[in-house]
Amino acid sequence: MFKSIVLRAAVPAVLVGAAAVAIADEGQWQPHQLPQLKSELKRIGITIPAEKLADLSKHPMSAIVSLGGCSASFVSPDGLVVTNHHCAYGAIQRNATPEKNYIVNGFLAKTRAEELPGGPNTLVYVTEKVENVTERVLKGLAPTLSGRERHELVEARIKALIAECETDKAYRCSVPAFHRGLEYYRIKQLMIRDVRLVYAPSNRIGDFGGDIDNYEWPRHTGDYSFLRAYVGKDGRPADPSPDNVPYKSKDFLVVSAEGLKAGDPILLAGYPGRTSRYKLPTEIRFARDVDFPAKVATITADLSVIAAATHGNAAWDVRYASVAKSLNNVLKKTQGLLDGFARKDIAAIKDVQDAEFRGWYKQSGNGSRLLVDLDSVISADMVQSRHEAAWAEATHSDLLKSARSLYRLALERQKPDAQRESGYQERDLSFIKARLTRLEQSFVPQVDEARWGAALQRYARGDAKYRPPGLDALLPAPTALNAMYKATELSDTAKRLAWIGKDPEAFRKSGDPFIQLAVRLHDIGMGLENQRNEIDGNLERVIPQYMAAVIAWKKSQGKPVYPDANSTLRVTYGTVAPYAPRDGLLKGPFTTVEGITQKASSKDPFIVPATLSEAIKGKRYGVFKDPVLNTVPVNFLSSADTTGGNSGSAVMNKRGELVGLNFDSTYESITKDWYFDSAITRAIHVDIRYMLWVMKEVDKADNLLKEMTIKYPKK
Q1: N or C: which end of the chain has fewer CB within 10 A?
Q2: 374 CB-near residues (< 8 Å, 6+ apart)
Q3: Does 149 reside within a domain?
Q4: In the chain, how many domains are there?
Q5: Among all residues, which ones are annotated catalytic?
Q6: pTM
Q7: Residue whose C-alpha is closest to residue 341's, from 382, 395, 283, 384
């Protein structure tokens, strides 16, 4: 049934101006913290009570879901989920063939029977409960424990808490650390494992501008897609089956086509991945001077190898499209961080803050032992990271990674389930199978061989003092790889999966060269893991003490403190706002469909589908035309605090109605993961009006428009 609600037309306002620039809106807040921010939310114009936003069982938070790496939200009572195009890219690629190229041509299921399987890696997580379990994780930890002993005891407690939570197998539970180990929360999520692709526009809409425009502004990208969650007829999560029915979501977001204008408030809810706001100056310098330059060099080289190995082969190119896309995204972000560090000396800013904190700490009557221990454990962590980076280069093969994972699983299954390493328990078996199966969609032996051979050469050129002891003697020469790939059976999915359940002795007796190498490398890998556990245990003992002191310091200044992002549900807020990346230049806050035709060319990634071009030239804008812009807006900027993992996050207006999807940040904002600069930090969102307009005028997705509840402005 078609549902629409008429609103009054938006009042025209000044498009951009100094008054529209936002006040600092820093913070990726846990929902339960929002009542502390009541005055701030009221200041920017949010009308939803903070107490309601803090309640996961109430609108709008009850409609916000995770895809396990991306964010999304329900937009109908029948399990319809909206997220970014790039978040559904794996499902699109999985169903694409050279004959049915859904990447280039897009896909639309006009009926539910036409919806396509998303694959074993496409999951929807609905957060139902969050509880503080800090005391149960940390109580009674003896100070005499070694770092490794402490880490393993904490992990054992976490596994027990998870097992206790997962007595109902419909749920997936986790116990992540907050404030770098000061607090722990147990999170209970309904895990829906039958998720289907419903609609995705052409890549020439969903990824218009491609890697060239990634992290850039102005943008003109329709980065959206739709999935649907299915469950068994009893309403509980079930394995994919034609008998399953759409999930009846407890709540869903109403879509508002009224739109926004400069200065309007927004709320953003999702699952941001990782930030490093509380890192010390030494950690920032390590990232800036050592870690990130090495990462840029490695990814750049790897992408070159992939491009050369897949050149001229359309099928191989499709298989590695998602891999290359992901690597390019990480590369541009990492390079952006380096450029940001060069543009603004964040380490020097942190030096000042660190000196202020240390001065306050000493004046508060505390000794220097904590600060000495802090510097020591961070130094050990940085050295270990370099050993791990060398190991990653030496073992840079998807096939070898599979062999190592299979052998580790065989060893872990010799232990009682509660004593196994996290990631290898019975609860993880379906994920291991999914990874091993997924490999067939993004793997070609010849390409994997080329990537590993190049990585081995990079490893050989690296600093020898960071190579794990004994590793060199076990590694094959690059010239020996071809024989290994010809002799292995692990390239075949069925034969790869057949190794699950075999005992360690079967691995040791195997003649498969990749299995043999996995067995030989195991002790060195475990040595690195044990060293990491020792260091992590020491970090987990010292860093929380530091964070408790930082929070006390901030509290003395009247400032609430949010934890670093850790892939858990967070809420941020801000305003629609332009920014000035340099003197005399003001950018944003909106782009329009006319900008698409201005960027159009005969070459990807700026090819415009003919149907889209015709709709723009015909100015068939209807109710989606902005009264100020006099056209359809495509993307807009806000001051919201976001990071990776926020892709697909719902952007809501002051009433909690969906007005856009987060999908990127400006290039100048990339350093926000380490330091939030309110003057230039801007998130990039796709405007809901562009999405709805494309669905109506270009892709004729009328069935989905009718399914959603959409508030249209009065003409």
Answers
A1: N
A2: 280, 542, 543, 546
A3: no
A4: 2
A5: 86, 223, 647
A6: 0.91
A7: 283
